[in-house]
Amino acid sequence: MRQAATKPAPTALPLHATNAANEQHGEVWKDAIASVRIMLGKSSAASQYDKLSQQQRAMILFAARLRPAKYINLPLLSLTLEEREAIRVAIIALLDLAKAFGRVPLSRDQFFPPRALKPVASSQAAPMEREVNSDVDNTLAEINRLAASLSADINEIEKH
After folding, report:
1. What is the pTM of this model?
2. What does the pLDDT average to over 38-49?
3. In whole angstroms, how far apart are CA 36 and each of 25, 52, 77?
4. Closest Cα to residue 56, out of 42, 76, 40?
């Protein structure tokens, strides 16, 4: 007698087992992190803000019109609701600013173009050069004033 060759029957796997590797769990991990943050009492925005350097916080506080000397070392969640809202709006404004310059080359030649190739008559060059030097002096004076103000703020922060 001849036996017919038979293949073993495939084992039927439950539906959930066959799709496990390809299953889309969506935003489950985000929900889990959010629930842990709620239990800890700290949002992701507060966590990120608290990790910023003093310079980064100062920029946000200036944009929020809050005095850095007073707020720079305070965690976000210790501020009042109005102060937190001002910071939230400031961060959004800074993000919009970053988007505006995100694809713009920011090399020095974009800000300080080379002088015109055309030579300027010597009688015209002197007044123009004085005007440029005056603008540079005014800009440097403004930078020095801002640096002194920032230094004073930092010194006040270090006293506390």
Report:
1. 0.48
2. 78
3. 18, 22, 16
4. 76
